[in-house]
Amino acid sequence: MPLTSSQENYLKAIYKLEVGEGIATNQALSASVEATPASVTNMLRKLMEEGLVKYEAYQGAMLTKSGRNEAVKLVRKHRLWEVFLVKKLHYDWDAVHALAEDLEHIGGAELINRLDAFLDHPKYDPHGDPIPNEQGEIRARQHAFAASEASVGTKFVVCGVRDSSSLFLRHLDKLNIRLGKNYELIECLEFDRSAVWSEGADSYTNVSSEVAINVLIQITHE
Amino acid sequence: MPLTSSQENYLKAIYKLEVGEGIATNQALSASVEATPASVTNMLRKLMEEGLVKYEAYQGAMLTKSGRNEAVKLVRKHRLWEVFLVKKLHYDWDAVHALAEDLEHIGGAELINRLDAFLDHPKYDPHGDPIPNEQGEIRARQHAFAASEASVGTKFVVCGVRDSSSLFLRHLDKLNIRLGKNYELIECLEFDRSAVWSEGADSYTNVSSEVAINVLIQITHE
DNA sequence: ATAAATTTTTAGCCCAGGCTAAAAATTTAT
DNA sequence: ATAAATTTTTAGCCTGGGCTAAAAATTTAT
Q1: How far is B90 from chain A (nearest CA, A)?
Q2: Which of B88, B89, B107 sits opposite A99 (nearest CB)?
Q3: Half-sphere exposure of A194 (CA within 13 A, CB side)
Q4: What are phi and psi for residue B164, nearest 5 degrees?
Q5: Fewest CB within a 10 Å sphere: which of A74, B19, B85, B127?
Q6: Helix and strand totals (H; E) in chain A
Q7: ipTM, 2 dp
């Protein structure tokens, strides 16, 4: 029997908690699907019966193989729709999450594979998160870490964000920081732990530590 | 309060019955939304309370201004998504209805206007049906009629279908009849009321009367 | 080891939107 | 005008997925 949208949302929530090394307790899920703990208990029972989830009270929930499979499919759909909305419909990157959240429940493999092809098999979504392929494999970005960990002199490219809230993304817009842009870390200021990034020439950006913590970078060897 | 998908489906069904000069009786609706008459009564009551529908037992239902407004928006969304699926994702024209049926409930004016722009403001969907504009105006095809009404010698262009079932559309595919193609009606055969259409040169297609009845054409004055 | 705090589950309720079966209303036919 | 057929509504029930408030289970702290 096909999953309902609500079931799909739970699976995705559990998945996200798992990869974030969090444990998918009743409470954590409650926050993340925006339902009361009582409702979560209810849904977990159903998902267990359908063999999508393993659950032990106080120990948290884990996806089974087939549950994880479903969750990854959802992530794929979500991220591909986000690419579509940004690249083709020119939405801002901070405005696509809610729409993708709805679109991800539509259609099956056929639709999403066609969308994937139409978009030229993008590897990352507009926030730099990797898009699982048709087989559910995720080729995660290698060697990415928070900009706050870089040392002075490092040259890097911005490749993702830790926080994809609208607030943070719009802040990056204001700082003119975008995925794919290259910088060099010029200095770290002791006073407020902020940093100075240079894009070259006389272009300098002052980056607060809150920002740096939430920006993912890769070192560029050139 | 926002409409549910189910409410939207009822509005669209009533709208379609209205334009097809049918009357949206409890029964007709029952067939068209695939629910029992009892369920229809139920929903009509709600739609009436929300001021979307006027209903009188045995006389059928009619949309109010705001109900019609909603219905036309849905038609717009449906047809634009169909264009997207066929033109961009290369679905066959007989395979897009069900998906568009789901997609049409997603998002609001912003999304659909962006989609419209992305598709270059198409005037017709893949079956030749006109797409309402943002204001809800439908510039219906003028002077279109069933191919079965044409007289010998008429030159015409195929511009739509009366039946958009998968079965019929695939049949047209087999006959190589497509929207936008030009023909001349060469003769009508008395025996089985079938017709011969020519695309010029030595290209002739024999068209049964069932087919001709369901193909919409416009006379070409050249 | 026991008390306090936390987490989870139960119980009972709500709403949307279906359903069936039977009753009521209306229309059509005789 | 009355009977027959049809259409609509009611009544009662079901499922999915929420909710609250209270009870039970477990963990943590003393």
Answers
A1: 8
A2: B107
A3: 9
A4: -110, 30
A5: B19
A6: 8, 8
A7: 0.93
What span, in angstroms and rounded, lies between the C-alpha atoms of B63 and A126? 42
Mean pLDDT to the nearest integer, B60-66: 96
How wide is the angle at C-alpha A199 spanned by C-alphas A195 and A204, nearest 5°?
50
- The residue type found at A57 is A
**pLDDT digits 0-9 by tens, B107-166:** 999 999 999 999 999 999 999 999 999 999 999 888 999 999 999 999 999 999 999 999
The pTM of the full predicted model, rounded to 2 decimals, is 0.95
Contact A124, A132 (CB under 8 A): no
What span, in angstroms and rounded, lies between the C-alpha atoms of B81 and B74? 11
The contacts of residue B37 (CB under 8 Å, 6+ apart) are B26, B27, B30
What domains lie within chain B, and their CATH numbers? 5-63 (1.10.10.10), 75-140 (1.10.10.10), 145-219 (2.30.30.90)
Residues in reach of strand C, judged by a CB distance below 7 angstroms, are A 25-27, 37-38, 40-42, 44, 55, 57-58, 60; B 4-7, 9, 33-36, 38-39, 42-43, 46, 57-59
Q: Which nucleotides of C are covered by protein (CB under 7 A)?
A: 7-12, 16-22, 25-27
